[in-house]
Write a structure and sequence with these properties.
- With 386 residues, this protein is α+β, with helices and mostly antiparallel strands.
- Helix content is 49%, strand content 15%.
- The chain is built from eleven helices and ten strands.
- The longest helix has 37 residues.
- It starts with 8 loop residues before the first helix and ends in a 5-residue tail after the last helix.
- Bound molecules: flavin-adenine dinucleotide.
């Protein structure tokens, strides 16, 4: 397969170094962290010390001004550690939330926040979803009302990755309840975790991805300085729509990597395990299933690599990343389903990594815009629906 442009020799070298870091600092702890349902701060700081957190941030703000290829490698190698929860937590911080700060944070706070984000002293989250709305973000009800030099925020957010661990959260709020259309009344405000009125109410019990926390959060007369507004008032929705393309790219990369690593680790098992005097892999039904998934995985790799190249080149990836996000999310689930089946009873036991993968990948077609929302975006782009 031809190599994509982004995989330069320097990036490959970086992959070797980061893979060694993951083998030493992540893999041995995955089971403990899964049980504890938390990532220790020492992991974030170790990532920061080595320059692995937000390497794309400018050097003056603590980063290495590295291109997006390095974020890709970090995402893929964390995924290959076999614990998708840690990959999600790091992506949400480093490639989903911090880009908003780099672009839109007030000058007075920008350097302080970015430096702490790259060192691991500040972990971030982004709160868009509410109990009453997820797909239909324009319907969000959390309000921020101006009061002198402050905003007072009231409302609730749920399913927020890093919601419990975070030191700073970007909150999507309604600043103009009368705006028409409604999405023009939405803004983004940064809230530091020690702000009175910001309540980390509950760590939610998920089906999978136990390592990373997912929180239910409340804002009760939470007063933040007006300077914490990101960008302009009323433009929050358009900022989110723009940044969601990078978010969906990260999730598609995670999905593709999951599909690859799940099949990779299933192959030796099915070649070795015997039934009826032959290997499980050698039964034509199983061999054909594996070949079908392997073919899809290769198609997916070609597609994701070309989208990554386009993204780095500054092209608009909205159409293709929407395709990739739904298709690769569902591919990862097809692969996980078949690989559990190929493992038989062992595939249903938590001590087998494939069992963890099976529950971990189930979230992919739901978050960051569900498969149905991706198809809706595409149907609109093709003038099929309003
Ligand atoms: C593990 C996890 C982590 C998450 N992390 C975050 C986070 O960090 N920050 C954050 O803000 N949110 C986060 N979310 C929330 C996630 O983005 C939402 O769950 C998702 O957008 C779906 O919204 P919802 O749950 O309200 O479902 P709903 O919007 O109620 O949708 C329910 C179902 O209806 C379908 N549906 C909705 N509208 C349509 C339509 N027009 N046509 C066809 N079908 C439709 C959906 O696809 C879905 O299948 C996370 C969720 C999970 C599970």
């Amino acid at each position: 397969m031809p190599k994509p442009n982004y995989l330069t020799p320097e990036v490959e070298q970086f992959r070797d170094a980061f893979r060694a870091f993951v083998a030493a600092e992540v893999a041995p702890h995955v089971d403990d962290w899964e049980r504890q349902q938390a990532i220790p701060r020492s992991f974030w700081n170790a990532m920061g010390e080595q320059g692995y957190l937000c390497p794309w941030v400018e050097e003056a703000d603590g980063g290495s001004a590295a291109d997006f290829a390095y974020s890709v490698v970090i995402c893929e190698e964390l995924g290959r550690s076999g614990a998708m929860g840690i990959q999600t937590a790091v992506s949400v911080h480093a490639d989903i939330t911090v880009p908003y700060l780099a672009e839109l944070a007030p000058q007075s706070m920008r350097r302080d926040w970015l430096t702490r984000c790259t060192s691991g002293d500040m972990v971030t989250a982004i709160g868009m979803t509410e109990p009453g709305c997820g797909s239909d973000l324009a319907a969000l009800r959390t309000t921020a009302v101006r009061d002198g030099d402050d905003y007072i925020i009231n409302g609730q957010k749920t399913f927020i990755t890093n919601g419990i661990a975070c030191d700073l959260i970007l909150v999507a709020v309604r600043t103009d309840p009368d705006a028409m259309p409604a999405h023009r009344g939405i803004s983004l405000i940064a809230v530091e975790a020690d702000t009175p009125g910001f309540v980390k109410a509950r760590q939610l019990e998920k089906v999978g991805q136990h390592i990373g926390d997912t929180g239910e959060l409340f804002f009760e007369d939470c007063r933040v300085p007006r300077a914490n507004l990101l960008g302009e008032e009323g433009k929050g929705f358009s900022y989110m729509m723009r940044n969601l393309q990078r978010e969906r790219l990260m999730i598609a990369i995670a999905a593709q990597t999951a599909a690859e690593q799940i099949l990779d680790k299933t192959l030796p098992y099915v070649k070795e395990r015997n039934a009826f005097g032959a290997s499980i892999a050698s039964f034509q039904h199983n061999a054909f299933k594996i070949v079908e998934r392997a073919t899809e995985i290769e198609l997916g790799r070609t597609m994701i690599d070309s989208i990554i190249d386009e993204f780095i080149a500054g092209e608009d990836i909205t159409r293709r990343v929407s395709m990739a996000k739904w298709w690769m999310g569902e591919l990862a689930n097809r692969v996980a389903y078949d690989c559990v089946q190929l493992h038989g009873g062992y595939g249903y036991m938590r001590e087998y990594p494939v069992a963890r993968d099976f529950v971990d990948v189930r979230a992919i077609p739901i978050y960051a815009g569900s498969s149905e929302i991706m198809k809706l975006i595409l149907a609109r782009m093709m003038d099929l629906v309003e």
